[in-house]
């Protein structure tokens, strides 16, 4: 247990900040949420600042920042925070383009500070067990089933359907972050069908195929038009047995048994990892899930589907 908590600022007080970042930081033994940066909201017990410039001007005593803004506006914040020498943690997806990802990493490499490109789904409790089961096994079939109701998880967030904000790949990149973390033999996107609602700039659904050079059948279905409980599952068939990684890596189902308690503590684990990286003077900047998504767009066959409007409950 560290002697003294490190001070951290949180920028972008929206859905994920309220649901996950603030509670995780309030309960952290590593971090003290000392400042918030928001155009609209204030956070009790922290100093509040309207934007990154005001924060950098006012709080030179804070050494770390977590950026929970959408990737579009986040880039400018990330550049300024890195150039100010802060330890920086960013939400997924890391940026709007791959060039931005590399620019951020190159800037961070010039500082002594930590740059943590976070992937919350990699913190699922069954991820390590899935990796262990795949190690050395022959993978015959893999099926990603990632379906949720966009109205439930992104209510009214029009930015998410704008070009550069990934659409259904915003949750889909979580599946990619798991895949790139656990496969014994890396796979690449080999075929992509993207379904754009009439008048929107980003897809609401996608069908993908992957290739790993062995002939294994590997597919993904992402869909935001789902009614009912979200599904974030990956099924694996291997020469050593079959299993299903359920609920974004929370637990495994195999041979009729459930392995793992299904608890999710992704954000507390992310902040604990960020603290460890800072203490060790290391960075973690894996962009491989973003590369998979970029390839899905590069290969994507575009299909127009029915117009989408937010549900009014
Ligand atoms: P959100 O609620 O729409 O936006 C987060 C906050 O970002 C907004 O409340 C706003 O904060 C700030 N912001 C938005 N546009 C801005 C701009 N142009 N300039 C400055 N600040 C701006 O989005 P979110 O759902 O929290 O998602 C944010 C990030 O977290 C995304 O990258 C998303 O992929 C990721 N994420 C989301 C979820 C989820 O379930 N929602 C889960 C995991 C990860 P202020 O009003 O405070 O300025």
From TrEMBL:
What SUPFAM superfamilies is this protein classified in?
Answer: NAD(P)-binding Rossmann-fold domains (SSF51735)
At the top level of its lineage, which domain of life is listed? Bacteria
The Gfo/Idh/MocA-like oxidoreductase N-terminal domain, residue ranges: 6-117
Q: Show the InterPro entries listed in the entry.
A: Gfo/Idh/MocA-like_OxRdtase_N, Gfo/Idh/MocA_oxidrdct_glycsds, NAD(P)-bd_dom_sf
* GO terms, molecular function: nucleotide binding
Question: Known PANTHER family for this protein?
Answer: BCDNA.GH03377, DEHYDROGENASE
Q: What is this protein called?
A: Putative d-galactose 1-dehydrogenase protein
Which species is this record about? Oceaniovalibus guishaninsula JLT2003
